[in-house]
């Protein structure tokens, strides 16, 4: 049996530089996340979080440099389709794309084809449908299977996207600002889903600027600013008023209750 210590890290970035046009978006960026860790990456808008996500999902690539390296699940090169079967993605970009007449089941099935719906060139078999229905059942949203996305609330659509990410039964999920645009009830429901996934053994990488998204199961927090990691450690050590005030450039107050953090 392979122990956690023997498994390759989920993510291992060493001194990477990523350009967006002529701008350096990530600079000498290093981050290592273990195979079964739950980690939150926190930072203000413009700090490089989106570029980091696109680098992990292979939409952006680091500049080739002799002192730089990047691996995901122990591999430096990936077929994107194979990677998506191992690392599920729930992103705002995907949320904006999955709109219209596609029903919940078709959105979940689209995870097998890295698309946003089922099209005429896709071949869906009984096993695909079985796994899609199982993912919907796991998230208790089987009632959304036949409902068009355009008739769903934002919270319902977000849960369908989580089911889409889970359809391959990946070992890890990457959440990008998961509660963005959701009302209070939907936020609470989604955070409960994240907790359940974390407790089921699914590794969680949460990228956010909302402290409230950091559920109790997430024990490690990474702070980003201007394309760099500026702090990395245990949640209790990193989530301090002075650190957050410096990170966001404003005076803040913070409260903690039952493992949840809030600041204003």
Morphology call: globular
The CATH class is Alpha Beta
CATH fold annotation = Rossmann fold
Through-space gap between termini: 46 Å
Low-confidence stretches: none
Number of helices, counting only DSSP H or I runs of 4 residues or more: 9
- Work out the helicity level: 25-40%
Secondary-structure arrangement, i.e. CATH architecture: 3-Layer(aba) Sandwich
Radius of gyration: 18 Å
SSE arrangement, N to C? EEEHEHEHHHHEHEEEHHEE
Domains counted in the coordinates: how many?
Answer: 1
- Main pleated sheet: 6 strands, mixed
Q: In CATH, what is the homologous superfamily?
A: P-loop containing nucleotide triphosphate hydrolases
Provide an overview of this structure:
With 264 residues, the protein is an alpha/beta fold. It has one domain: 3-Layer(aba) Sandwich (Rossmann fold), CATH 3.40.50.300. 31% of the residues lie in helices and 25% in strands. The chain has helices at 49-56, 80-86, 92-97, 104-109, 126-138, 154-166, 184-199, 235-238, 241-248, and strands at residues 11-20, 23-33, 38-42, 69-72, 87-90, 172-176, 203-208, 220-225, 228-234, 254-257, 260-263. The strands form 3 sheets. It has a 6-stranded mixed beta sheet, sandwiched between helices. Strands 2-1-4 form a 3-stranded antiparallel beta sheet, covered by helices on one side. Strands 10-11 form a two-stranded antiparallel ribbon. Helix 7 (184-199) links the parallel strand 6 (172-176) and strand 7. The protein is globular. It starts with 10 loop residues before the first strand and ends with a strand. The model has no long low-confidence stretch (mean pLDDT 91).
